[in-house]
Write a structure and sequence with these properties.
Layout (H helix, E strand, L loop, with lengths): L2 H16 L11 H16 L9 H14 L2 H8 L13 E5 L9 H9 L3 E5 L7 H12 L7 E3 L9 E5 L2 H10 L5 E4 L3 E5 L6 H12 L9 E7 L5 H7 L3 H5 L2 H16 L5 E2 L4 E4 L9 E7 L2 H10 L4 E5 L28 H6 L4
Parallel strand pairs: 1-2, 1-4, 2-3, 4-5, 6-7, 6-11, 7-10, 9-10
Antiparallel strand pairs: 8-9
Helix pairs in contact: 1-3, 2-6, 8-9
Amino acid sequence: MKLEERIQAFVELGNVLISRNKTNASSYSDSINEALEKLKYFTLNEYIHNPWFIPEFIEKMIDGIGSMLHKDKLKSWLSDYPNLSQKEKPYRVGVVMAGNIPLVGFHDFLCVLMAGDVFMGKLSSNDKHLLPAIAQLLCAIEPRFSPYIIFTEEKLEKIDKIIATGSNNTSRYFEYYFAKYPSIIRKHCNSVAVLKGNESEEELRLLVDDICLYFGLGCRSVSKVYVPQSYNFVPLFKLLDAYKPTYEMHHSYMNNLEYQKTVHLINKIPFFDQGILMFKEDTSMASPISVVHYEYYTDESQLLEQLNKQCDSLQCTVCNTACKADGVGFGKAQFPNLDQYANKIDTLAFLLKTEV
């Protein structure tokens, strides 16, 4: 397929995803309706296989993907890669996917297919149904993608390149196992927010999504907030109650919360009890499930300099966009732009390299 044809297929995929719950089934072909039914089934029932993948959050992710696949956004993104349409041959790209949040590997899937390569996906056992359902829908829209999409539970063999995402521990295994291949090996990252104390109620409301979507399990989930001295947490705490019904109905999450409270109380570690989240003063960016770390700062420029030095372990910084050149606006952490790559490694540039 030509690049324009690949773009158009993904644009149509985005349109179908956006209108999936609104458009009459008769508007689509039988193959598209069959794929949509499968996607709907897994959206509603994936929590049976992975209790953290609740329908509400899967719907949010699918909506985000649908919005991402707008024609103007795709063309603007791909315009930075003029060699994309001049590729002589497809590579077989192995992609080892994480499973921390629903469809976390979609962007890699998109990049590989936009590059004209063969996607060979090894799914996480925590998220093994949703992306194949999306892929089936894409192939129903454009059948010529079918030979370019392979999912396997076996060892990744006969590949030319590898993209692997995991924890800091598994990344060492990936680096050893895939040492002979050109690779992107991603480690764990965290995201933080920098608050000035003068944020509007709407900005704080958006920050709540940055913290709470996907139970805080994503690398783009805000796990720590930096606040000025004497910061008043009350307005933020009140807005976090918006997620109270979702969180309180989730037994695994509430068990984690009770465990963390017990540990902190027994060890006499001070914390703020917001109700569905604990806020603990801590210098670490990484925090356990149900805990958000916070740290006071006195000099904003010094703080930003400190964060720049930690950029390798920092996925994004949520703040007023005037605060930091590469900062992410409130409410945008979980909905990255197409050029905001995981671990800040340009996936398309890697795929376009001809050395194998």
